[in-house]
Specification:
This protein has 277 residues and is mainly alpha-helical. The protein is built from 12 helices and no strands. The protein has one domain (4-276).
Amino acid sequence: WGFLPLYMKAVAHIPSAEVVAHRIFWSVPISGMILLWMGRTADIKRAFREPRTLAMAALTATLITINWGVYVWSIAVGRALETALGYYINPLFSIFLGAVLLGEKLDRLKIAAIALAAAAVVLLTVETGGLPWVSLVLTVSWGFYALFKKTLPVGPTQGFFLEVLLLSIPALGYIAWLETNGTGHFLATGSYNTMMLMLAGVVTAVPLIIYANAAKRLKLSTIGIMQYIAPTMIFLIAVFIFGEPFDHVRLVAFILIWTALAIYSWSLFKGRSRVSK
């Protein structure tokens, strides 16, 4: 995930909706092959007989489509820093969701961390004259995706396959429509675009399946703290490779977020130290 902006920049000349459609479509065979290797295809047949499972999969599929669409677009138009900010905020949003919806306890340090993250959002809103909507949409969509993924009544790989399978019908229809009216990039614009769009399945399915397996096994707050790595890489790529502007307002906002994450990490360390004693 940390290196994903480099791929997205390489396909920035292709409309974001088309890239997302190919991310969905090419994820189906990859996740399907993994299911065959695991010998868990019967779980998919069972899921199709359970309306609640299909409804939950449709919900998580909707959330991940929103997240993918905003992510692809933001990298293409030079807003990778906002993407990084969104994924930095996400662990703290996961703490908030865990407290509100799952009854996970918040100590004073965690409350302070959430308050600092909120202060960063307020600062950006006041100084730029509008909400940092890219960051907020990525945060909220991914936070709820993680939450509902944790409660999806199937295995993580099966759940991801269900999601992309449900999405593949409209995705394939959209791809076919683009190709037939001559505006698609898969067949008519050279082997480079064909290869890169097919690669979308690999860069999408592999990290998400790994993440989905972790989401089933770890506390929501633990998943949150593990997500520091990707936004840090996105931040470094945005500043030092893409050369996006990094003014004093963004610097202060990121310092607030980094401080919040440091406080949260310290609260986890203190909690584990007490348990070990």
